[in-house]
Amino acid sequence: MVDVRADIEQRLERVQAVIEKQGLGGLLIYSHGRHNMGRMDQLLYLSDFRSVGPCVLVVPRSGSPTLLVSPPWDAARAGEAAGVREAKGVDFRDLAELTGREAAKLGKPLGLAGRDVMPVGFGEELFEELGDEPADAEKLVPSLGMCRTPAELERVEMAGRIADIGFQAACDTARVGMREYELAAEVEAAMQKAGAEDNFGLIGGNAHNQAVRPATDRRLEEGDLIIGEITPCYKGYVAQLCRTLVLGKPTAVQQEKFELLIEAETQGLEAARAGRPSGEIARAVDGVIGAAGYEEYCKPPYMRTRGHGLGMGGIAPADLTQQSASILENNMTFVIHPNQYLPETGYMMVGDTVVIDDGAARRLTQTPLQLFWKAV
Predict the structure, then answer these.
(1) At what angle do helices 120-130 and 92-103 cross, to 10 degrees?
(2) What is d(CA 193, CA 185) in angstroms, rounded to the nearest whole number?
(3) What is the pTM of this model?
(4) Who contacts 165 (Cβ-Cβ below 8 Å, separation ≥6)?
(5) Is 221 helix (H, G, I), strand (E, B) or coil?
(6) Nearest 5°: CA angle at 197, between 53 and 74?
(7) Is residue 353 a contact partner of residue 160, using CB atoms and an 8 Å limit?
(8) How many Cβ atoms are within 10 Å of 53's Cβ, its own excluded?
(9) Distance separating alpha carbons of residues 92 and 55, to the nearest angstrom
(10) Distance CA 159, CA 261 (A)
(11) Which of 228, 233, 248, 287 is 20 to 30 A away from residue 113, measured at CA?
(12) Rounded to an integer, what distance in angstroms lies between the CA atom of residue 168 and that of residue 193?
């Protein structure tokens, strides 16, 4: 097991080196306590603390950061986090004032990250306490966090194993007459038992799905294609698995078209290599599906992206489209998903979280690449 405390210390050292290089006196990182798989949680990245309320991490040019925690009763939990040396509990009404006091110990100019999720009133109060408006440092930490560290990768891999467990639960429990939300609950329960702390889950079924969506109270029927996008979070890090389960025996057409999507993912995985533009993944996926006569379905409104950054936020390689220009690097983690609407079958899903490992893509989700079905 990787030493998380040492891993975070190394992240902090890289951030502080950039703070000094940019001539900043320090960095303030604001978190609103709501977590989104598409947005990097910079406070979590440097503290290993997943907040439930507004917090500020005060990062000096050297030495340990100070974490200001609201609600104040959460300071004890914060103090147990691997990257926290000093945690101070504070009522949100006093957070701006205390941030100003801590910031006064730093040099100027200050950098600020998290302004985009900061309440306007709080921002105005904070800038008044600081005496001036800090520099925009929103990209400072993400620029250093595009590739997973050993401790981060360990967690993404665990999230991938939990996603596999979630889909297996769907296969085991799905039945005719079950409501979609009941199936979603079975998936959630299995993943929580395995260690998930959250899940961005979309799951539903129909004989001809238009798109993936949240579960409803619709009852599952024989012949339904149950499509699922399962995205568990483990200690702040997420992995995603996309698969399709037929409730009943699949038709020959469904098997044929799903094999097309499997080939598209296979080619996407082959294109995911270090040093190449990420757009090559989307071009490989679209090339397979387009060559089968579905080029028009590789574009909006039928399809938006062939994958996206994943792990801690979607910062790299961002959305996988044919125009994506970001260069793939070792230890980048992201999902490749040739999810596709086809007129003969409706929307079907297949996709896996991968890491660029030794120059090539390695799947972190291990559920077999196949169309699943369950006799009824």
Answers:
(1) 30
(2) 12
(3) 0.95
(4) 190, 191, 194
(5) coil
(6) 30
(7) yes
(8) 18
(9) 8
(10) 24
(11) 233
(12) 13
Peptide bond into 301 cis (omega under 30): yes
**Would residue 275 be called left, alpha or beta, if left means φ above 0 and alpha means ψ between -120 and 50 degrees?**
left
Q: What are the residue ranges of CATH 3.40.350.10 in the chain?
A: 4-144
CATH of 150-374, one of 3.20.20.100, 3.30.450.40, 2.40.50.140, 3.90.230.10: 3.90.230.10
Confidence of residue 366 (pLDDT cuts 50, 70, 90): very high
Cα separation, 83 vs 6, in Å, equals 9
C-alpha 47/C-alpha 30 separation (Å) is 12
Q: Determine the straight-line distance between the first and last CA of the chain, rounded to whole angstroms.
A: 43
Confidence of residue 54 (pLDDT cuts 50, 70, 90): very high
- Collapsing DSSP to helix, strand or coil, 252 comes out as helix
Nearest-10 Cα torsion for 233, 216, 369, 251: 180
Of 1.20.1440.230, 3.30.1330.60, 3.40.50.1950, 3.40.350.10, which CATH number belongs to 4-144? Answer: 3.40.350.10
- What pLDDT digit, counting tens, does each position of 252-294 carry? 999 999 999 999 999 999 999 999 999 999 999 999 999 999 9
In the block, tokens 């941030």 appear at 99
Report helix, strand or coil for 44.
helix
38 token code pair:
């598409």
| pLDDT tens column, 296-315 | 999 999 999 999 999 998 88
* Alpha carbons 269 and 90: distance in angstroms, whole number: 47
3-state secondary structure of 85: coil
- pLDDT value at residue 376: 93
Rounded to an integer, what distance in angstroms lies between the CA atom of residue 47 and that of residue 43? 6
Closest CA to 155 of 46, 238, 39: 238
CA count, 13 A, side-chain hemisphere, 366:
7
| H/E element, 34 | none
